Amino acid sequence: MTSTVYYTDMTTKADRNLLEKTRKAAKKAGITACIEKNDLVAIKLHFGEPGNLAFTPPPLLRVITDMVRERGGKPFLTDANTLYRGKRRNAVDHIETAIKNGFTYETVGAPVIIADGLIGADYVNVEIGGKHFDTVKISSAVHQADSIIAVSHVKGHELFGFGGALKNLGMGCGSPSGKQTMHSDMVPKVDPEKCIACGTCIKYCPEDAISRVENNKAFINEELCIGCGECVAFCPVEAIPINWKTDEAAIQEKTAEYAYGVIKPKQGKTGFINYVMNVTPDCDCAPWNDIPIVSNLGILASTDPISVDQASLDIINQAPVISNSVLGKKNEPADADKFRAVHKKNTGYILDHGEFLGMGSRKHELKTFWMKQSKTVK
Ligand code: SF4
Ligand code: SF4
């Protein structure tokens, strides 16, 4: 199977600014063609951690929400709460962060809805029968939407090497407890020094694996624990530490399985737009953004999430390095796998496993438009 990815570079003219280029890319790829009247359309993005300015600019999202409305759909911008305790850990902080970063109704023309609710407890178990998971915990608003358009900022990531459409869908649409299970096959432990005996973990444990011991503090019975991560996600004082210990291939494959859980119930109702702009070494979860490793390279759109990520990687790997970036200082060969050079991670596990699951194909035809020199590359 060979998919088609539409690509335009960053060259602009009066009638070809980045807003017009976004519209054209989305239209050519048929991103909104599947949307029917009154469809609820989740537009999945990353609102950026405060202090990070590399996320996709809100006016570009406005183009997509306008296109959805032209089809009669009802768009909303969405992301799920984080596992770590930054400024997107609950819906209140998350929405305030989105507003601070410019994602207001006035700017983007759609409401912001945090996909897994106030505290990350709203999710649906979706059966996938994967290598790692039989079911995955997909945020309710994403699952209940009729259609999803993933708008992804392509950048580096310390665990994945890079983040694109698959990471945006997989890690980005999982509940916080799901995120914990993607990060680690853990058996959590309570730190009695930090435990305030609130009982929240007991309330959320599905296996009754937690009991009260001395001073009413919590204790986890390892024999009963299934490693679901709920207690880690809901402890209000981090007395059950997040386990970040991970296997490079496993986290990527697990994330691909979560991405599969997002799109499996929405066959033919999905679309993917990747912005290869501000290609920072680190994720938008970081409250900073270092110098990009390559210049702004363009916009890619497809109905295949594997192809759009593979094409984005190819374009980045073919581009010259920015000399004063973290990569410029490493003296890597011009054709080096740039994200592997930055993070020492193999970026291929997530794409291979996504392909294995039947989500798409790494083989693609790149159709260019509105370039300095248009060409078709196989
Ligand atoms: S990981 Fe899940 S099963 Fe284990 S103690 Fe925590 S909530 Fe209970
Ligand atoms: S949720 Fe945290 S603080 Fe509350 S009882 Fe459980 S471990 Fe202790």
Write the layout of secondary structure elements.
Blueprint: E1 3-8, H1 18-29, E2 40-44, H2 58-70, E3 74-79, H3 91-100, H4 105-108, E4 112-114, E5 123-127, E6 135-139, H5 140-144, E7 147-153, E8 155-157, E9 161-163, H6 165-173, H7 176-183, H8 200-204, E10 210-212, E11 218-220, H9 230-234, H10 248-263, E12 270-276, E13 298-302, H11 305-318, H12 338-343, H13 348-356, E14 364-368, E15 376-377
Parallel strand pairs: 1-14, 2-3, 2-7, 3-4, 7-12
Antiparallel strand pairs: 1-13, 5-6, 8-9, 10-11, 12-13, 14-15
Helix pairs in contact: 1-2, 6-10, 10-13
The protein binds iron/sulfur cluster (2 copies).
Mean pLDDT: 93
Strand order of the largest sheet: 4-3-2-7-12-13-1-14-15
% residues in beta strands: 15-25%
Number of helices: 13
Radius of gyration computed on alpha carbons: 21 Å
What would you note in describing this structure?
With 378 residues, this protein is an alpha/beta fold. The chain folds into two domains: 3-176 and 248-377, Rossmann fold, CATH 3.40.50; 187-242, Alpha-Beta Plaits, CATH 3.30.70.20. 31% of the residues lie in helices and 18% in strands. The strands form four sheets. A nine-stranded mixed beta sheet has the order 4-3-2-7-12-13-1-14-15, with helices on both faces. The longest helix is centred in the last third of the chain and has 16 residues, at 248-263. The radius of gyration is 21 Å and the shape is globular. Residues 188, 204-205, 207, 209-210, 220, 225-231 line the site of one iron/sulfur cluster. The site of one iron/sulfur cluster has 14 residues, from helix 9.
